[in-house]
Design brief:
heterodimer, A: alpha/beta, Rossmann fold, 5-stranded parallel sheet, 4-stranded parallel sheet, 9 strands, globular, B: alpha/beta, Urease, subunit C, domain 1, TIM Barrel, 12 helices, about 30% helix, Asp/Orn_carbamoylTrfase_sf (chain A), Aspartate carbamoyltransferase (chain A)
Chain lengths: ~325, ~450
């Protein structure tokens, strides 16, 4: 693997390998000394063209626990019209000797452009591009599901037979896209539930089912319910009338949550809008994986950086 | 001082082989075994002769965006592609919405001498879509503007569009509409469909084009005026235009070479060379456009030549500019998409790339037949040449061609404008030389 640009290109075997390495990384996190020497002398640049403190510190922790040197580069307003171009930034990083670049960018496709432009030799990790992909988020979601389903016996396994409901603003969600490719590759059955305005116009090529009725979908007893963040500003684009109607129709409110079996996982990529797409009771319940997702994010990102930058494949050191 | 050429053994659009003597800016003789009488001999064995190509949709960028293109460099690109006339779109800076600006462009074209430059006037002041520009003043100016367009923007206000269509009847004008419903395309980045959802790029739905065309043909019918639809890109638009023509509505339509050849699949690379407005569409649309050009529903091919500097076309997709250069490649793309499959013959190519655009634009002295007495506005094309389309084929200031690295058929060997050669045996002539010939030709016919 030279770059991690999306989950769409990942085979089942590659994904399981990465999740298994993340298990090894998680095991290291339980030791007294959490740091591995694997990437000593390597430089990882967190290149963020969009604010995201959570994702940045997760990558920063991952790189540091692998002993890499970390440079945080915040470059807001990247386009030709608004200051430094992607090309100039990339050439700057190349000149500084970056081995890995973790890029977050508001434009879909920017990580691919960076990886294929010839401007830079570094391995590129997509930390979220526009409304396209956010592969490490999907990988940490899969990792979290696999641990909850299989516990200590997770290694080597996929998510075969798991039924996952993803609810909310699919149209604008890179998290939904990356999960829609990755989870079916791992054997899960995925259903996307959203108002029709917040689904892409044509998802027939996606390996997922779609529907509009949350109550019906919850009635099918999914194993996982993943709620996506909804931006209240979407009502100005006439995607839905107002946040009250959205919450009533597509939110995981108390009544819907109470009707779920205790075994149903409740997931959210964060940050949550409590009371809008998810009620506090659901978010804070033992069924919620929200805090695990954060912890697992570091392990999964360690695995990704390890695979890209250590120059070897297989088990972690 | 004017040049004389004897073109020997060219294949006419109708397939016959003839010699042509060009003299005094006209085709003086047409026959076989013509006597050179001191004229320069042009060996046209294996070459097709067509009336000089006429592009109804070119962006020359001058005044205002000279880092992308100038009238000189744009018409040099035109000559390289076999064009002898270009209609220059109005989105310059200042906008071509007054007699002064269109006369300036017209004069720059005359002075450069590579091709006739026929300015297009803006429909609304500053392309802002709020009030009519001085359409009459531009029509009565030395530039004799007959085509009006806010291209780049749609005249979306239905009342303004109605009035514009009505008003230009006074001088035989036509409104060339960039059909794009603005609200349906806010932030749009590519064709809306399965692929846009996968790539996470905001969609440009076909209905945003089709609904405007449907409205405009009905407006044109209601006020009895003439409508031209720019860069038709969808199968649905073809159906609307077909319906309108069957109903007797006075509508004409153009398709670009890139919409005849390329599909939205190219966008998966996020390579901004493939970013264009309207966007590349599905294979079904490409097929519908080819069928419509073959059956006459679409009247002409126009390039939408849109030069941009490198820095506007090599970053992230969202921030990159829309547009492709197309003058130098147009004939080869039409050859590939329409002639090779047998859907058009060379007489049809003469119609869709020369005669019909000149007629729609009411441009005299261009788009004639290849016959005695016609102006010596001609192109000699070698259909047998095949090769990689490389940078050496580009003669304008910008290189944002989607065809670089592609194999395309054919090559322009000679272009004649006002009787003199602007392209000689595949080489574009020097600017100073061409300007001198133009000055001489201009003084010749007063």
């Amino acid at each position: 693997m030279n770059h991690l640009l999306g989950t769409r290109e990942l085979s089942r075997e590659q994904a399981i390998e990465l999740l298994d390495i993340a298990e090894d990384m998680a095991a290291v996190q339980e030791r007294e000394v959490k740091k591995l020497p694997t990437l000593r002398g390597k430089t990882v640049v967190n290149l963020f063209f969009e604010d995201s403190t959570r994702t940045r510190i997760s990558f920063e922790a991952a790189a540091k626990r692998l002993s890499a040197d970390v440079i945080n580069f915040s470059a807001k307003g990247s386009s030709v019209s608004k200051g430094e171009s992607l090309k100039d930034t990339a050439q700057t990083l190349q000149a500084m000797g970056a081995d890995g670049v973790v890029i977050r960018h508001p434009a879909s496709g920017a990580p691919l452009t960076l990886a294929t432009s010839g401007w830079i030799d570094a391995g590129v990790v997509n930390a979220g591009d526009g409304t396209h992909e956010h592969p490490t988020q999907a990988l940490l979601d899969a990792f979290t599901m696999r641990r909850r389903l299989h516990g200590a016996a997770s290694r080597g396994r996929g998510l075969d037979g798991a039924r996952v409901l993803i609810v909310g603003d699919v149209l604008h969600s890179r998290v939904a896209r990356s999960n829609a490719w990755l989870l079916p590759a791992l054997g899960a059955e995925v259903e996307l539930v959203a108002p029709p305005t917040l689904l892409p116009v044509d998802t027939r090529r996606w390996p997922v089912a779609t529907s509009y009725d949350l109550d019906e979908a919850l009635g099918r007893r999914p194993d996982v319910v993943m709620m996506l963040r909804i931006q209240a500003e979407r009502m100005h684009g006439a995607f839905f009338p107002n946040s009250r109607e959205y919450a009533r129709t597509w939110g995981l409110d108390d009544a819907r949550f109470d009707a779920l079996p205790d075994t149903t996982m409740v997931m959210h990529p964060g940050p949550m809008n409590r009371g809008l797409e998810i009620a506090a009771r659901a978010a804070d319940s033992p069924q919620s994986t929200v805090r695990e997702q954060v912890a697992n994010g570091v392990s999964v990102r360690m695995a990704a950086l390890y695979l890209l930058l250590s120059g070897e494949r297989g088990a972690a050191a | 001082m004017s040049e004389r050429h004897l073109i020997v053994g060219a294949q006419l659009p109708n397939g016959e082989r003839r010699d042509l003597l060009l003299e005094g800016g006209r085709i003086a003789e047409l026959g076989t075994g013509l006597d050179a009488r001191g004229a320069e001999l042009v060996d046209a064995a294996g070459l097709v002769v067509l009336p000089g190509l006429v592009d109804l949709h070119t962006h020359l960028r001058e005044p205002g965006y000279e880092q992308s293109e100038t009238v000189l460099t744009g018409t040099r690109a035109a000559a390289a592609g076999g064009f002898t006339a270009v209609f220059a779109m109005a989105n310059t800076s200042p906008v071509a919405d007054t007699a002064g600006v269109v006369e300036q462009e017209f004069s720059l074209g005359r002075a450069a001498g590579y091709a006739a430059v026929q300015p297009i006037g803006a429909v609304t002041v500053g392309l802002a879509g709020e009030r009519l520009a001085e359409l009459g003043a531009m029509a009565q100016s030395r530039a004799r503007v007959r085509v009006f367009s806010d291209d780049g923007f749609c005249v979306h206000d239905p009342l303004l569009m109605r009035r514009a269509l009505e008003y230009v009847k006074a001088f035989g004008g036509v409104i060339a509409q960039h059909a794009q419903e603005p609200r349906l395309t806010e932030g749009a980045q590519m064709n809306e469909g399965a692929l846009s959802g996968e790539l996470g790029l905001a969609g440009w739905p076909a209905v945003a084009e089709e609904s405007i065309i449907a409205r405009d043909v009905l407006l044109a019918e209601h006020v009895g005026s003439r409508l031209h639809v720019c860069h038709v890109s969808t199968a649905g638009s073809v159906e609307v235009i077909r319906w309108a023509k069957a109903r007797g509505i006075d509508v004409t339509a153009e398709v670009t070479p890139h919409h005849l050849l390329l599909t939205e699949d190219r966008v998966a690379s996020y390579d901004p060379r493939f970013k264009v407005n309207p966007p590349l569409r599905r294979a079904e649309d490409v097929e519908a456009l080819r069928a419509a050009l073959a059956d006459g529903t679409i009247d002409i091919v126009a390039t939408d030549h849109a030069p941009h500097p490198m820095e506007a076309k090599e970053g992230e997709w969202d921030a990159s500019a829309n547009g492709m250069v197309g003058l130098e490649s147009a004939l080869s793309v039409v050859h590939r998409t329409m002639v090779e499959p047998g859907r058009l013959d060379w007489a049809d190519v003469a119609r869709v790339l020369s005669q019909a655009p000149a007629r729609i634009g009411r441009l005299a002295g261009q788009g004639g037949e290849v016959e005695v007495g016609a102006p010596a506005e001609l192109v000699l094309y070698d259909p047998s040449a095949t090769g990689e389309f490389g940078l050496e084929r580009l003669a304008g200031r910008s290189t944002n061609s989607p065809y670089l690295g592609e194999t395309l058929p054919g090559s322009v060997r000679w272009t004649f404008h006002q009787g003199y050669a602007t392209v000689r045996d595949g080489e574009v002539r020097e600017a100073a030389e061409v300007a001198g010939l133009a000055a001489a030709a201009g003084s010749g016919d007063g």
